[in-house]
Amino acid sequence: MKRILFLIGIVCVACTLSAQKGKNNDQELPAFGKIDKADLQMKECDFDAKAEALVLLDEGEMDFIYGSGLQMKRRVRIKILSDKGLEWANVHLPYRSESNAQNITNLEAQTYNLDAGGNVVTSKVEKKLIYEKQVNKKYRERVFTFPEVKVGSVIEYKFRHTGIGLVDWYFQSSIPVKYSSFKMDFPEDIEVHTTPYCNRKFEQKNDVSGMRVIKSYAMSNVPGFRDEPHILNEDFYRDRIETKVIAYIENGRRTSRVVNWLQVIKYLMEDEDFGVQVKKNIPRTADLDEKLKNMTEPYQKLKTIYKYVQENMAWNETLGIWALDGVKAAWKDKKGTVGEINLILVNLLKDAGVKAHPVLVSTHDNGIVNTMDAGTYEYPGFFQFNKVMAYVEVDKKVYVLDASQKETPLHLIPQDILMTEALLIEKIETGEWGWKTLWHKDLQAKNVVQVIGMINESGMMDGEATISSFDYARLDRLPSAKKGKDKFIEKYVSGMTPGMTVNDVTFENLESDSLPLVQKVKFQQTLNSSGDYKYFSANVMSGLEKNPFVADSRFSDVFFGYNQSYTLLGNFTLPAGYELEGLPKNIKMIMSDTSVTISRISQVSGDLIMVRVQLEFKKPVYPTTQYEELHEFYKQLFDLLNEQYVIRKKK
Description:
Radius of gyration: 29 Å
Mean pLDDT: 90
Structural class: alpha+beta
Number of strands: 37
Number of domains: 3
Strand order of the largest sheet: 1-13-14-11-2-3-9-5-6
Distance between the termini: 83 Å
Number of helices: 12
Largest sheet: 9 strands, mixed
CATH architecture of the largest domain: Sandwich
Low-confidence stretches: 1-24
CATH class of the largest domain: Mainly Beta
CATH topology of the largest domain: Immunoglobulin-like
């Protein structure tokens, strides 16, 4: 059985490594249950004042023991600073339960509070309140909630995780961390390499004790990693230590576990659960044969086979690149893993004479692939990928297909792998293998919003908005639309425009992926008023009602993944006897690199106000170095979008 290690490996910032022994690395840590009253009296984190909770201590020790394998002992202590921080009192500890591969034992947990007399009161989590929860057929988790928790409490738990395998250690969390330490204790005949990916100083110490090598790391006062909108992968930006076994010594002989990408590809092409499956003779069904029998154009064959596999194969919600049960068995059962479904797709396309290859990908939430060959920090391996897809070339155009995704049309690269590096797998001698960047300039999300609004004398607007969503904009809105009117209104109307009443919603082209998703919304909205004046914004249901970039600074790059286009067309009819109090200026703004442009044209004809707003994004990613400019541009952009049209009774 293949073990897929979920590791990522590409350096984002230069790390500062202290080779000297530091005080944090050698400091005496308080024992489990020994609490400093100052921690219980603490009101806020002194280096992150907005924190809802603070990790006082996160301590991990990983040991390799012959006959028992790897185990991790971990202890976590957290201070609750606000009502929102109470969420940290609910703990889930996942482990792989399939074939008893892993277990969590020696679990202890308790809450600490101060009573009226200033004494420490300890409330233990009773064993009977720790329960097992089945996550899926492979994983379970230990779940418990701390008792007597309130703002000001300190909670602490410790456990032993056996059969765990190597892990990466994250110093940084979504809340600040006062002190984090990680120790690895391995026999000297197993070479473990650790790679720092950090932008803060940390302490490191290496010791040799007998025939064992002990590596220790520590970091203090780590600010919380805030949830930032439009981020590619949160873990990619968090301070961490990555670990890999690079060699072992057996009978006095050193065996390297470091390979290059050519070796990885060669192995995969020969593997029974991967390359061999692509060569399997999958019997085509009678109805698929009927669809293909008169087709000669490769594009039509591609479209037909892709749609057929999408509609006839059910995904069992298991990721991975392997066809562990075989493509023939999955094809017969009409159900399989991502690996099985997409290797079936490649197999059928090849059989129909369409040029197709399996391509390994890592989704955004899985991590960013390191494409470098073996070096100081780089270790090639299929463990970096969590999906295989079909890579197809027809008429000089590339298609990247995941048939387990039912809604993604043929012409769009799946959204969860946009702008990633993928590895095309093929026999070495063909020269067709290699790295592919999964993006092209024509990919975009496009929304066209047409609004007709009739305003009456009481300041009520009766309106209808027609929203046409193309490509990735269609994909974003489709799930809510298919769940029904209520879910759609909740996400795209109520959540965006408080105070708007929706009378009806209808959808067009729900099942046609070659046409835009059309959403027609009939609504009513009361205009704001002040004295004799009433005012409204023409920015209605555009999806741009709230500025996502209000923070002054940012850890991560701004990742959209595709270009964007917004067109807003508004026709607003004034009530009899009313006039516009000044027409907002026609304006055009352009970012310095011309990657974002917005223009607005307004005009009045009798009692009709006509507005046209055009917004274009011509870049899929904005680096943190450009965030200051983007932040300021967005502020002006939303001021423009939300500028009010003021009306009053004619004098």
